[in-house]
């Protein structure tokens, strides 16, 4: 017999599956069932890997699917079919296949499953090649190795996620299971629809501005209505929010709108978390322009029309600088982007926010909770449209409902009315183990649903980490049994000397973000010794935000871990609001990244809250490093950082910076503040004093503090500073800086400084 996946295999090659199961007949029946309902079906071949690959070949033949409509997602090679490595499964996002075979034997991940499931077309089959379902949960693979973060080993990683996954495979409708070891059919995958779903047909509105051809390319009434709503982008001052589950055609509608706008000469900027997320937008825009005879040129993620219009992709972090040269902005997968980035997009002339409500790409509810208020407070006229009917497969599709269930893509926090009365006095502090979550599906959904809202991009892998990673633990507040606030904590540190040396000499370490940064970047070879707990995510139900529940949860966590750990820590994209929240909870800033995160568009900040003497020594060391380093970074790598982030980060340090100035420097500063002196004569002295003040602010108002940051620390030109801070002239801004330094000299100055000051006062 030829080897698994060998191209030499043909119809005459006997399958070594036992005669008890006719794989080709099973595949044919599942395919017919799927085609008859325009839904998808799942075939699971559990057991020996080589036998599973042979069974997959039999499936392709039995389903009578052309080779070019098949993709194998596997680390094995040698197939005649299109093959994708599991780590590159995202390449299938936005594509459609009749059969996708996912090899789950050595490189399985929840992310890969979420990505490939969405690529199966209506009437198609998802084929899973798994170890024996009885044995699979206990088997460790490459994904488990990623969960075994130091100091934990692979033996510490549990099997809860796969146990739950296997349970869903055994009882969810539309899933056939073949036991390859016993040559038996455990489930045949038959699925009676039960309900008939009518999908309204697409239509051409009586009154429309976009080309008729664009509406003729719509597949459902939902798409027609969405395209009609997107006509508002022709006029500045309009914003359109498009929400849909996966597979409803929102990206196609956005592409038709972008192509229509370009056909009339409009300049359209398209952005998304990655270029693959925007592929469908460009495909539909290009096709429409070609059908209209308006396609002048095509580049990778760039289209030009005969009318001079264009559609081009811009990464999220570069959009702000591209808005002056566009007529409309289309944001696809908006829920996967940070609030800071989304808010910056409000400077566009017109904008469409397209977001997935339930799916791999992001959480639409998180978009609504975290960003919608900014949009509603803007000057845009906002309209909403939602797509409910699937495009590529019929409603009620069992593969869609199974992936929602298995990966918790539809997880939600409790209904707002159930927790609206929660207060800091009414809640109970709870520890939830992974076993607790696995045993209570309702609890798991509430916890994971809140965590989804806490972050702009939650992945299926995060569910497996929550259930199986040995370094993670959950703490929560509940109100009448419902979760209202939750924190996901990661144990870090406590590393042996060999591991610490590995990091110090350039290696990386998984799951230990704070020790990794402190050791590798900040050159602190002892940073991995103390044990800490990093707050990976914290979320409070949107119905009771700003009620003090998040702070109450952090207080309880601090009390619990005070005798167990050396510190609590956190890392996040720095905004003034978040810095203030963590400072109020006694966390001190110790690090600020010099580059923006590609997805969030924000600079990361690390903060510590010591719990022991070792933790205090660590925090004190890095507070000092941070304050000293900031003096140099702000005039160079961080010269364009938001001044309010600078103010918030320096204010959030745990101890004030102590400036050291010579007698000459003090005279220079005092004469510039109170007399005819110039700040440019002693820039270093002014910067040290600025950091000293900002780490213990008090006398200056916000505008004065921004002036100190922009001019002294970030070295912006006087013209730019005067313009940004709305001074009438550069000379007025210069005088304002001198005035701002007067209370600084008064508070920090030495007798020599005060003597120099008094000369001008006298």
From TrEMBL:
Binding residues annotated for acetyl-CoA, in chain numbering: 538-540, 577
Domain N-acetyltransferase: 555-611
EC id: 2.3.1.193
Repeat is among the record's keywords: no
Pfam families: GNAT_acetyltr_2 (PF13718), NAT10_TcmA_helicase (PF05127), TmcA_N (PF08351)
GO molecular function: ATP binding; tRNA binding; tRNA cytidine N4-acetyltransferase activity
Cellular compartment(s): Cytoplasm
Keyword set, alphabetical order: Acyltransferase, ATP-binding, Cytoplasm, Nucleotide-binding, RNA-binding, Transferase, tRNA processing, tRNA-binding
Gene Ontology CC terms, in alphabetical order: cytoplasm
Keyword Iron-sulfur: no
Annotated InterPro entries: Acyl_CoA_acyltransferase, GNAT_dom, P-loop_NTPase, TcmA/NAT10_helicase, TmcA/NAT10/Kre33, TmcA/NAT10_N, TmcA_C_sf, tRNA_acetyltr_TmcA
Domain TcmA/NAT10 helicase: 241-410
Job of this protein: Catalyzes the formation of N(4)-acetylcytidine (ac(4)C) at the wobble position of tRNA(Met), by using acetyl-CoA as an acetyl donor and ATP (or GTP).
PANTHER family: N-ACETYLTRANSFERASE 10, RNA CYTIDINE ACETYLTRANSFERASE
Protein name: tRNA(Met) cytidine acetyltransferase TmcA
Gene name linked to the record: tmcA
């Amino acid at each position: 017999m030829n080897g698994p996946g060998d191209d030499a295999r043909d119809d005459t090659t006997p399958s070594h599956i036992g005669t008890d199961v006719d794989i080709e007949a099973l595949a044919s029946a599942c395919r017919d069932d799927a085609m008859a309902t325009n839904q998808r079906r799942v075939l699971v071949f559990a057991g020996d890997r080589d036998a599973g690959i042979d069974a997959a070949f039999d499936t392709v033949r039995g389903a009578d699917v052309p080779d070019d409509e098949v993709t194998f997602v596997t680390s094995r090679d040698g197939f005649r079919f299109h093959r994708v490595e599991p780590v590159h499964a995202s390449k299938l996002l936005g594509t459609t296949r009749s059969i996708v075979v996912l090899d789950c034997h050595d490189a399985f991940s929840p992310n890969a499953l979420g990505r490939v499931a969405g690529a199966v077309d209506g009437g198609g089959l998802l084929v899973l090649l798994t170890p024996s379902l009885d044995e699979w949960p206990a088997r460790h693979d490459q994904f488990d190795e990623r969960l075994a973060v130091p100091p934990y080993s692979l033996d510490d990683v549990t099997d809860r996620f796969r146990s739950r996954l296997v349970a869903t495979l055994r009882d969810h409708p539309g899933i056939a299971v073949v036991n390859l070891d016993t040559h038996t059919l455990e489930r045949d995958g038959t699925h009676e629809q039960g309900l008939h779903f009518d999908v309204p047909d697409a239509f051409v509105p009586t009154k429309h501005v976009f080309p008729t051809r664009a509406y003729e390319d719509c597949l459902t009434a939902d798409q027609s209505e969405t395209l009609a709503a997107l006509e508002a982008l022709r006029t500045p001052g309009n914003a359109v929010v498009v929400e849909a589950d996966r597979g409803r055609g929102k990206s196609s509608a956005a592409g038709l709108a972008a192509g229509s706008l370009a056909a009339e000469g409009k300049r359209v900027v398209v952005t998304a978390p990655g270029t693959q997320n925007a592929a469908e937008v460009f495909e539909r825009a290009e096709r429409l322009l070609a059908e209209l005879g308006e396609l002048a040129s095509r580049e990778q993620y760039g289209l030009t029309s005969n009318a001079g219009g264009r559609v081009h992709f811009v990464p999220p972090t570069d959009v702000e600088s591209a808005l002056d040269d566009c007529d409309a902005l289309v944001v696809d997968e908006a829920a996967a982007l940070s609030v800071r980035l989304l808010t910056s997009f409000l400077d566009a002339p017109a904008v469409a926010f397209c977001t997935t409500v339930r799916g791999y790409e992001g959480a639409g509810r998180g978009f609504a909770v975290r960003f919608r208020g900014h949009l509603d407070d803007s000057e845009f006229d906002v309209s909403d449209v939602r797509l409910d009917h699937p495009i590529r497969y019929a409603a009620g599709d069992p593969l869609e409902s199974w992936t929602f269930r298995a990966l918790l893509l539809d997880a939600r926090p409790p209904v707002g009315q159930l927790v609206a009365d929660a207060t800091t006095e009414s809640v109970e502090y709870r520890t939830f183990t992974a076993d607790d979550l696995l045993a209570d599906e309702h609890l798991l959904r509430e916890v994971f649903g809140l965590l989804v809202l806490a972050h702009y991009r939650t992945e299926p892998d995060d569910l497996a980490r929550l259930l199986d990673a040995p370094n993670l633990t959950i703490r929560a507040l509940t109100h009448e049994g419902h979760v209202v606030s939750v924190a996901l904590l990661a144990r870090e540190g406590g590393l042996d000397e060999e591991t610490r040396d590995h990091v110090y000499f350039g290696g990386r370490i998984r799951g230990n973000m704070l020790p990794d940064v402190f050791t590798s970047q900040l050159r602190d070879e002892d940073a991995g010794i103390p044990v800490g707990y990093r707050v990976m995510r914290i979320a409070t139900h949107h119905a009771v935000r700003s009620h003090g529940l998040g702070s109450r949860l952090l207080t309880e966590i601090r009390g619990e871990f005070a005798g167990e750990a050396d510190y609590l820590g956190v890392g996040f994209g720095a905004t003034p609001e978040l810095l203030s929240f963590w400072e109020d909870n006694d966390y001190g800033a110790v690090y600020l990244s010099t580059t923006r995160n590609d997805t969030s568009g924000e600079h990361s900040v690390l903060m510590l809250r010591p719990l022991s003497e070792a933790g205090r020594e660590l925090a004190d060391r890095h507070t000092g490093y941070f304050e000293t380093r900031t003096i140099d970074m702000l005039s160079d790598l961080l010269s364009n950082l938001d001044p309010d982030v600078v103010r918030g980060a320096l204010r959030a340090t745990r101890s004030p910076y102590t400036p050291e100035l010579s007698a000459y420097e003090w005279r220079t500063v005092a004469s510039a503040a109170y007399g005819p002196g110039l700040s440019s004569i002693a820039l270093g002295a002014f910067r040290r004093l600025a950091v000293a003040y900002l780490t213990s602010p008090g006398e200056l108002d916000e505008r004065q503090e921004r002036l100190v940051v922009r001019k002294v620390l970030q070295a912006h030109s006087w013209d730019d500073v005067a313009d940004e801070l709305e001074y009438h002239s550069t000379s007025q801004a210069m005088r304002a800086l001198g005035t701002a330094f007067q209370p600084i000299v008064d508070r920090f100055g030495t007798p020599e400084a005060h003597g120099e000051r008094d000369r001008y006062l006298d």
